[in-house]
Amino acid sequence: MISHALNYLEKNIHLLYAALGFLTVITFALTLLPAESISSGNRIFQYDKIGHSLMFGSWTFLLGLIFMVSDRKPLPLLKIFMVGSIFGILIEILQEVLTSDRHADPLDAVADIIGCLAAVAFLKVITTNSSYHDAERVP
Question: Which of 90, 59, 101 is nearest to 51 (CA)?
């Protein structure tokens, strides 16, 4: 079943690029826009660290899927993890530099990195339990 989904994504890689682009825009909006423009209350920030992990984990997972379906070589998991983590750290730096009501939070960066690590672990599980990389490419 995983191999079927990956074959579909290989043939429709534009969907992955669109999803990654959309998630990137949403990530910038949620992390760099003034907090009051996103929510009138603080309820959205109640689970802030979980949100960071899910957002950056999802972003890293999509990036890994793009690598996976673009080239059937073994995934560069360390590179994928580093790109996702650097993106999360960069967002924290941008919050400090570009916004007046948001500030860099090292714990947010840790949550971002944990999400990236979980995404890479999930990608590893998928590649280990899938025959996708062993199959011949179908033009």
Answer: 59
User: Strand, coil or helix: what is 98?
Assistant: helix
Both tokens of 76, joined, read 């560069």
Ranking 3-7, 15-19, 44-48, 70-74 by mean pLDDT, the lowest is: 44-48
Distance (Å, whole) CA 50 – CA 112? 9
Cβ atoms 99, 34 nearer than 8 A = yes
Provide the pLDDT confidence category of residue 74 given band limits of 50, 70 and 90: confident
**CA atoms of 10 and 81, how far apart (whole Å):** 21
Please give the distance of CA 124 from its chain centroid, rounded to a whole number: 15
Q: Tell me the C-alpha distance between 138 and 132, whole Å.
A: 11
DSSP at 138: -
Maximal CA-CA distance, the chain: 53
**Cα gap 62→80, rounded to integer Å:** 10
Residues comprising the chain, all counted: 139
Looking at every residue in the chain, the average pLDDT score rounds to 86
